[in-house]
Design brief:
This protein is 29% helix and 16% strand. The two termini are 27 Å apart.
Length: 153
């Protein structure tokens, strides 16, 4: 089943709808996480080494379009671009995220305010810490709280 077909499969559509209800966010823009490798030159020795990096950037419909994208043209980056066309958050993008193909970064702040928050526990005792936050949220603040385990760990 293709990604496009899967996004509209009734069973999969339920997952996407649940995601949209749980993670209410801006629909007009979102970011994606990317990784890469770059060459770093040591200032003292002049030695070159390869370094992995991670970044986040708003998803642009003009990314890598030859006559529009400054990155493709090697003339600059997204910050200087006048051809930005931010992609809306579609069911297809959410489907890619749910299948583990893309890490999405959602913008929680909307005109109506913030409707959800997220916390990342990478150090110490992450599961126990997450349970403490969940229990405090539910039992003390009466705010629904859900725990999701990262697919990267």
């Amino acid at each position: 089943m293709s990604n496009q077909t899967q996004a509209y499969d009734p069973a999969y559509k339920k997952k996407i709808d649940l995601f949209r209800r749980r993670f209410s966010c801006r629909e007009d823009v979102f970011s994606v996480r990317y990784t890469g490798t770059r060459t770093v030159i040591d200032a003292a020795t002049g030695a070159e080494t390869q370094e992995d990096y991670v970044g986040v950037s708003p998803q642009c419909d003009n990314y890598w379009v030859p006559n529009l994208c400054l990155i493709y043209q090697k003339k600059g980056g997204c910050a200087e671009c006048t051809n930005k066309k931010y992609a809306p958050l579609t069911d297809a993008w959410i489907g890619r995220h749910l299948r583990g193909e893309k890490d999405l970064v959602l913008f929680m702040l909307q005109k109506e305010g913030i409707r959800f928050g997220a916390v990342d526990f990478d150090y110490g005792t992450p599961f126990e810490d997450a349970l403490l936050v969940r229990n405090f949220s539910w039992n003390v603040l009466d705010i629904p709280c859900y725990i999701a385990r990262s697919s990267k760990k």
